[in-house]
Structure formats: C-alpha cells, structure tokens
Amino acid sequence: MRDMLRGEARRLANTVIWSWQGFRAAWATEKTLRQWTLANLISAALACTLDLTPGERALILALGLLILAAELINTAVEEVVDMVSPGPDPRAKKAKDCGSACVALAAIAAGVAWGVVLLG
C-alpha cells in the first residue's frame, strides 16, 4: 500500500512538473497567453472585490481559467500544425482557426457571465 501511494505521489509530482514546464514554455513565446493572464488577473481582482455571491465569483474565476486553458490548447494545436505542415495547407489553416475560435468562445462565455452578473 505504501509503495502504491509513493508511486501515485510521484506520478502527481511529474504531472505538476510537466504542466508547469508547458505553461512556462507557452508563456515565453505566446504574447496572447500573457495578455489573457493579465486580463484574467484583473477579472479575478474585480470578482474578489465586488459584492458577488460565492457562485458568481466561482463562475467568473473558473471561466477566466478556462480562457487560459483554451489559449494553451490553441498554442499546442498551432505548434503541432506548424511541425507537420510547414507550408500553406487549407487543413492546417482550418485547425489553427478552430483553435483560435476555441479561445474566442471561452472569452465570450466569460464576457457573458460578467454581463449577467453585473446586470442581473
């Protein structure tokens, strides 16, 4: 049992390390990730400052994180597409555009949530 727990703890530690490495790599090269992070920090500060219910606050914070997750997925898609299709290709364009749309939809969802929370 103890060995099993150690193994699971090691897997969890590796997951954290690899995730942090991925975030740092994206941070170093992706201006949009840095922009969305700043927007998310401002949004989170407002959510924690304004008189919101815990559910409203949780929704705003979760959607902010969802935008960052979508941006990381978009970055991964773009990297892989560029690796396998260095030249112009309609399928490569479609894949990249869909990744971008994923980020846009997450941002729209966050904006809608803010609108509903603020306007009632």
Features:
mainly alpha; 120 residues
Largest sheet: none
Overall pLDDT level: 96
N-C termini distance: 52 Å
Please work out how many helical segments DSSP would assign. Answer: 4
Rg over C-alpha atoms, rounded to the nearest angstrom: 18 Å
Helix and strand content put the structural class at mainly alpha
Any idea what the shape is? flat
Element pattern in H and E: HHHH
Give the amount of beta strand, in percent: under 5%
The number of distinct β-strands equals 0
The helical percent reads over 70%
Indicate the low-confidence ranges by residue numbers.
Answer: none
Overview of this protein structure:
The chain has helices at 2-29, 31-49, 54-84, 90-119. It is flat, with a radius of gyration of 18 Å. The relative contact order is 0.10. Helix 2 packs antiparallel against helix 3 (54-84) and helix 3 (54-84) runs antiparallel to helix 4 (90-119). The chain is mostly helical and 120 residues long.
Element layout with pairings:
Layout (H helix, E strand, L loop, with lengths): L1 H28 L1 H19 L4 H31 L5 H30 L1
In short:
This protein has 120 residues and is mainly α. Helices cover 90% and strands 0% of the residues. It is built from four helices and no strands.
